Amino acid sequence: MESRLYLVSDVFDEFVNFSFDWKGMKTLGIAVSARMEGDGFNTDDISISYYIHLLN
Fold first, then answer.
1. What sign results for the dihedral spanned by CA atoms 10, 12, 14, 15?
2. CA distance 18 to 53
3. CB-based contacts of 27: which residues, under 8 Å, 6+ apart?
4. 1, 5, 41, 50: which could join 32 in a potential S-S bond, CB 3.0 to 4.6 Å?
5. Average pLDDT over residues 16-24
6. Which residue range(s) make up the domain with 26?
7. What's the rounded Cα separation, in Å, for the pair 31 and 26?
8. pLDDT at residue 25, as a whole number
9. How many CB atoms lie within 10 A of CB 23?
């Protein structure tokens, strides 16, 4: 079985350094997925993806 978690956040003060690299960055998304094997999650099979939303 695979579990997924999706988070979306407005850009806040901690992201100020990143916002200089990506002009117009408004939101940041994160997708985390993990596979369950037996009674728990396999920590070797966790993936994290980041998504940047820009407005021009």
1. positive
2. 12
3. 8, 9, 10, 11, 52, 53
4. 5
5. 63
6. 2-54
7. 17
8. 75
9. 9
The length of the chain, given as a count of residues: 56
Q: What is the structure's pLDDT at 22?
A: 67
Per-residue pLDDT tens for 23-43?
Answer: 777 788 999 998 877 777 777
Q: How many domains does the chain have?
A: 1
Does residue 49 register a pLDDT over 80? yes
Query: What are the tokens at 18?
Result: 């990143």
The tokens describing 46, both together, are 């966790």
Sheet holding 40-54, edge to edge: 2-10, 25-37, 40-54
